[in-house]
Amino acid sequence: MLLTIASTTTLNNGIAMPLFGLGTFRMGDEADMRRAIDTALDCGYRLFDTASAYQNEEEVGAALRANGIDRRELFITTKAWTDELGVAETREACEGSLRRLQMEYVDLYLIHWPAKGRWPAAWQAMTDLLADGKCRAIGVSNFTIKHLEELATLSPIAPAVNQVEFSPFRYDAALLQYCRDHDIQLESYSPLTRGAKIDHPVLLDIARRHVKTPAQVLLRWQLELGVVVIPKASSPRHIRENADIFDYSLSTDEVAALCALNEEYSIVNPEWRAQFEYPGALSKNFRQPH
Ligand SMILES: NC(=O)c1ccc[n+]([C@@H]2O[C@H](COP(=O)([O-])OP(=O)(O)OC[C@H]3O[C@@H](n4cnc5c(N)ncnc54)[C@H](OP(=O)(O)O)[C@@H]3O)[C@@H](O)[C@H]2O)c1
């Protein structure tokens, strides 16, 4: 697959989204953010992922503005937190995010977590925000197949993106297939397992074969599956290393070997995740073969 750092996927409403970008959760102070965004822009990153919950939208916006880059070249994602879900709340939250980012619009606005009883009204607000041009696309995060099925019964507007924790160690084949079948772009967060699984022998072996690092193998695996990926890195060395994945590819066998590493691993506290899930939904998804 011939891809570059500028490669995009076309979302279900026709807009282009980069396949690769920078996560910004826990980036550090203002100077760290500035250094990370300067380095990332220099490497060719154009997608930046933030959220009101990260409390860094001001810093992200300021660092991007300081670079003088044309806004239209960027793809900015932000998210509405669980206490920002509701018809009035979500509109207000989006306006707050835009104020902090000092932007007229975001490219993608997401429901951060499907808080029970609250996300359907938030989705209504998001479709209005889309119509008003406050965002170019709307989507969801941490939605399971059941949430997506319920959403499809509630609204004629399907999410453009579902951002979920996704890696070889958390490979939800059924969710990936559902999203492909319904023209919802899957986007991976915590693609590096925050470093927890970076020394796995299968990963090390594939990395050695390609003279790449385990992080570069984890990221390329996402691209081979057509999943958008947003590794977070604050160190300039990591930011550059993560972007250096467009000069090689993984074989079908290597992709399958990585998919076989699934162990439903998660960086998210299980009690936190459980409050959003329908009973039994998660393990049922994971039992599907890749
Ligand atoms: N929607 C959601 O609920 C949700 C949840 C979590 C995250 N996210 C988004 O997804 C982004 C990425 O996920 P994440 O931050 O949880 O975890 P991640 O990207 O899996 O891992 C980030 C960690 O990996 C390190 N790292 C980066 N590149 C590396 C490399 N080449 N080699 C070794 N270590 C490397 C970073 O170190 P340094 O920083 O020191 O470079 C940092 O400690 C977030 O920043 C956020 O934007 C969304």
Kindly list the characteristics that best describe this protein.
290 residues, eight-stranded parallel beta sheet, globular, two-stranded antiparallel sheet, alpha/beta
Span of the ends, CA to CA: 20 Å
Number of strands: 10
CATH homologous group name? NADP-dependent oxidoreductase domain
Question: Strand order, biggest sheet?
Answer: 3-4-5-6-7-8-9-10
What would the average pLDDT be, to the nearest integer?
95
Reported CATH architecture: Alpha-Beta Barrel
**Any idea what the shape is?**
globular
Low-confidence stretches: 282-290
Helix residue percentage: 40-55%
Q: Number of DSSP helices?
A: 12
Instruction: Write down the CATH topology.
Output: TIM Barrel
Question: Strand-residue fraction?
Answer: 5-15%
Any idea what the radius of gyration is? 18 Å
What features would you describe in this structure?
The chain has one domain (18-285): TIM Barrel, CATH 3.20.20.100. The chain contains twelve helices and ten strands. It has helices at 30-43, 57-66, 87-101, 119-131, 145-154, 173-181, 201-210, 214-224, 236-243, 252-259, 270-274, 281-286; strands at 8-10, 16-18, 21-23, 47-49, 75-80, 106-111, 135-141, 161-165, 185-189, 228-229. The longest helix has 15 residues, at 87-101. Residues 23-25, 49, 112, 141-142, 163, 189-195, 198, 213, 215, 230-235, 238, 241-242, 267 line the site of NADP nicotinamide-adenine-dinucleotide phosphate. NADP nicotinamide-adenine-dinucleotide phosphate binds next to helix 9.
